[in-house]
Amino acid sequence: MHAAEFDSITSRVRAISDEWESQRKERQMRRELSRDDFDQLADAGFTLTGVPVSHGGIWGEATESTRHVCEILRILAHGDPSVALVAAMHPGVLLLGFGGQTPPAPGNQFGTEWDAQRDWAYQCARDGNFWGTITSEAGSGGDVSRTRSSARAVEDGYVLTGSKHFGSGTGITSFVITTAVPEGEDVFDEFFLDLRDVPLDGTAGVEVIAPWDGHGMTATQSHAVKFTDFPAKRRAWHNAGGELRPVASPSIACMFASVIVGVVEVAVETARQQLSSKKDRLSSYEQVEWSRVEMEAWQVQQLHEGMLRSIADETTRARQTLLGKTSISDIAETLLTRLSRAIGGSSFSRQMPYGQWAQDVRALGFLRPPWSLAFDQLHRSTWGD
Fold this sequence. Notes:
The chain is an alpha+beta fold. The chain is built from 11 helices and 7 strands. The protein has a 5-stranded mixed barrel. Helix 1 runs parallel beside helix 4 (62-79) and helix 9 (317-343) packs across helix 11 (371-383). The longest helix has 35 residues, at 241-275. It is globular, with a radius of gyration of 21 Å.
């Protein structure tokens, strides 16, 4: 049943993305997100993507569901890569924070509270709210375990203090997952923040201290944010990241990679249409570069397919999806450079979409995990350290 629901949501999202494609020039000039875009996605059923079937959503078996979600995100990236990236956070966070369809059983004193918290989180998503993440900190290299944020226990939960950056979707996502070290403990844990209707000027404990101004993914509102004694819910299953992260990370890598694949697809197809009128007048060099573009586009698609298939193998999927996501990011950058050479100098005009797409895929390469952390993990997985 959930496969049919995925198909229905995909069809509605395709219609939305097609409309956004017709607004490409205006959208590439934007420096902020539109609430209306996310309302459209919620109305289309997108917020059900990370909610398990058992809790009224459409996420079922991991291999099939990851493929379905990636198809939706790939289509979204055709219309607006910035929106696609922020949307990708939603199912990813629900998997990372709450374990997906069949999470490992806690088997400890947190069991009842854990079940209740999962029910709450999934109800929030069923109500049309988007989940996001803000875990990165300056100097951490993308390693969430190196957080310097703290959480202090109070009568009704915790209050969190610390500075985070790259909070994609800030001001749009209703709930976010973040990290902090609980007072009196030595190990970080995950916390959930309710940011609905919270002003970002510091008056309520949340302040944007550095608005996002990136070359790529320009409209994602990936602001740097300072929290001061802001109310937080600690994940009821304490210190469960070691159990949940290995299950969620391969699917999340596929989701982020699917946004890159979508950008590559729309860039290549746009260039193909543009070059078709002069295909017989292309220089030898331009012909070679275009052929290389097509070769690399094929490689990107095949790598992503390999990532999706690897989800079924619990023993190798973490390494396979990491290899795939890193390779796709690397090839996509080269592809967009070759594409500009095939088109010529006009590709650098702001009237053309290619420069923005090139910066978008470059920005996406830094996501989960960022380059340095990705290669550290690959090295360790090779030598078993």
